[in-house]
Structure formats: structure tokens, C-alpha cells
Design a protein that fits this description.
With 225 residues, this protein is α+β, with helices and mostly antiparallel strands. It is built from 7 helices and 7 strands. The chain has helices spanning 7-13, 31-34, 67-85, 91-102, 116-130, 139-146, 148-163, and strands at residues 26-29, 40-43, 50-52, 134-136, 190-195, 198-211, 214-224. The strands form 2 sheets. Strands 4-7-6-5 form a 4-stranded mixed beta sheet, covered by helices on one side. It has a 3-stranded antiparallel beta sheet with strand order 1-2-3, with no helix packed on it.
């Protein structure tokens, strides 16, 4: 992914030019907007948009933002940050994933740089991950051993399994825990789910833990259906 920016666009992302008024910003104390000094900011003298800087530097955290965009950025961070706070991915992995989801180079994948529309996309894709209810460990190793197509099928199988409406299931099968198998000598309980790509095969996983209603899974192997 390669994006060619104009010099003005680069300066906008550095907080040097206001994206609304297209005039140079002022580097000044945050007393201007907060009434107290919380550090330096880049500030537009015309519209009042501003952005803070990274602590101990004069590097802006992104583009200047008005009230509406600041609200959008806060919401985007609220959903996206949950991905690594819940342990679904490491922080660096989450940003790599977001880069691919948005089709942006990693160096431009920072919520502070985003406009309102891109922030909305961050919320949308983050919600989908947070609603999945499972986190599959060591996906790169699975892909290396079985290929990208098989990994995709494994994740699709998990998505269907966790999305199933279990309200009509018989008593004793209505929760995920009802499917657990704790076999002698195994370090964790296991679950077997249908393989969406092979009706004669099941996929077996270790359930290594549960956090924030998210089940952490480790691929064990394929079994006969």
C-alpha cells in the first residue's frame, strides 16, 4: 500500500496546517482551550480546532480536530482499544490488522490522523471483532502449516459456531461450556465444531481461558465427523 500525499496533506497530518481553514496552525500552550496548562497544542486561530502533542516532544498526535471530529476519535479509540485490552490481539497486531482493514499504509494508520468517515469505519470493523466472542491463538503458525485458505475456513467455522442461536437447543446444550470435553491428561478442556468446508470432519480446539466473555482458543487438529 502506497499513498502519495501533497506537501499540504503531510503538514495537515503533522498538525502544521488546519484541515478546515487551510492556514498554518499556532504552536502554543493548551491554556488557550482548557484554561489550564496541560501541555502544548497546535491550534487554529481562525476556527479553534486543535490537537495535542506527544509528551516531551513537539510532534502532533495527528491532525487538528473540531468538536465533532474529537468526539469521533474518542469513539473510535473506545472500540478499537478494546481489541488489545481484551487480549484479542497484541497492540502492534491490532494496528497491523487495522491497516489492512482500512487499506492504509501502517505509517498512516493512526486514529489521530483520521477524518470522521475513517473513524466510523474503525468503529464498524472493531465492533465486528469484539462481537466474535473468540480469540484464536497463533494464527500465523496455523497458516504456515496448513495455508491461508484453511486458516480462513477455520475462522469461518468458529464464527458460525459462536454466532449460532442456542435458545432452541436441548437443555444441557445451550451454553458454550456445555460443549466442553475435559479428557484425562489434557491441559485444557476441548471443543469440537463443524468444519464448514468438510461435512465429514470436525475441528478441535483447546479452550485455554475466557476473559471479558471472549473464549481464548488454541487449534488442536482435525477429527472425523
Amino acid at each position: 500500500m502506497d499513498i502519495q500525499l501533497t506537501e499540504e496533506q503531510k503538514d495537515i497530518l503533522k498538525g502544521k496546517i488546519c484541515p478546515y481553514c487551510h492556514i498554518p496552525s499556532e504552536y502554543k500552550s493548551s491554556v488557550e482551550v482548557y484554561g489550564e496548562d496541560y501541555g502544548m497544542i497546535y491550534y487554529c486561530p481562525k476556527c479553534g480546532a486543535y490537537v495535542g502533542v506527544h509528551r516531551g516532544t513537539n510532534q502532533a498526535k495527528g491532525r487538528l480536530a473540531n468538536v465533532e471530529l474529537r468526539r469521533c476519535k474518542i469513539e473510535a479509540h473506545r472500540y478499537f482499544d478494546e481489541i488489545y485490552k481484551r487480549g484479542l490481539m497484541k497492540r502492534t497486531e491490532a494496528y497491523e490488522w487495522l491497516s489492512k482493514q482500512l487499506g492504509l499504509p501502517p505509517e498512516y494508520t493512526h486514529i489521530g490522523m483520521f477524518n470522521r468517515e475513517t473513524c466510523a469505519k474503525v468503529v464498524d470493523v472493531s465492533k465486528k471483532i469484539l462481537e466474535m466472542r473468540f480469540a484464536l491463538r497463533k494464527q500465523e503458525k496455523i497458516k504456515a502449516a496448513f495455508g491461508d485458505e484453511t486458516l480462513t475456513r477455520i475462522k469461518e467455522s468458529l464464527t458460525r459456531y459462536f454466532a449460532a442461536d442456542r435458545s432452541d437447543y436441548p437443555e444441557g446444550l445451550r451454553t458454550i461450556e456445555d460443549d466442553f470435553n475435559q479428557l484425562p491428561g489434557e491441559p485444557y478442556p476441548t471443543i469440537d465444531i463443524n468444519d464448514v468446508g468438510n461435512d465429514n470432519r470436525m475441528i478441535e480446539f483447546y479452550v485455554t481461558g475466557k476473559k471479558y466473555d471472549v473464549y481464548h482458543l488454541a487449534f488442536k487438529g482435525f477429527t472425523k465427523g
